[in-house]
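Attaching the record inline, Q. Sequence:
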Amino acid sequence: MVLGASIMMHYGTYAQEEQESAEVYLEEYTDEFQENFFEALKQKGIQNYDRAVDLFLKCKQLEPNNSVVDYELAKAYMFDKKYVQAQDYAIEALLSEPEDYWYLDNLLTILDKQGSPIESIKQRIPYYNKKLQQNMAVSLFKMKKYGEASKVLDDLENSQLKSDLEGKIKDSLQKDKEPDTAPIVKKEEDLDDPVAQLKAQMEQLITASEYETLLSDSQEALDSYPLQPYFYYAYGTSLNNTGNPNKGIEVLESGLDYLLDDEGLKNKIYKQLSEGYSKIGNTQKANEYLNKINSGL
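Structure, as predicted:
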């Protein structure tokens, strides 16, 4: 009995030591991943793409199934004009999360830079996922590929997003045909409009610097209203102020593509872009966006 108790005590001590050892290993493993990952983001931000790729590949070894690493590898390879590798990692990221707008938008950008049609990768992605098709239509519209966006919309069931996007495509095609005549008079916000209500709430969160709440609220709003540039501004601002300026820059620059005639919002986006680039150490781009505010361009 005493021997049994002694063995149990020894085993309990061994198990505890083993657990503590595993926790230390996991902590070191996590630290190594984070150290490599954030250094890679920094190197990507200062356009040192070879170094960024090497560091992201180390992260890939540590966490083979991390879709964010695949996404960042795709972007780093794309910036380095290595489109074949970029495309493979972009597809891998999208397969992990088929309904993620940014993963799909990144893949479509890579295809565009190669001059490759969507049909070339259609069999490699869950193309008929309805959310993916919605995201594709929005992304193609942003890229001013109105014909392709319309074709994707034709396969979708009627919805508010489909109706809104069809209207925006029609307006954009009309605007391309006609010369500018008179300045557009901005309408007063209708406070019964849910979009206007969301904007007002987010302005309050920004004023109060409640960025964590803004992060979740703006992400949800952007998912519901992907054609509204204000929500790109709000989401980008929240990312800038919650430790993710790289993603914030991407979101804010994407928002500029949806912006038509709102100089105030454009300057707000420029200011956040300047702050985001400052945070990742790219002072040249930070000053570039500051100058855009000052020059009114």
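Residues 1-12, 180-189 have pLDDT under 50 and may be disordered. The radius of gyration is 23 Å.

More tomorrow.
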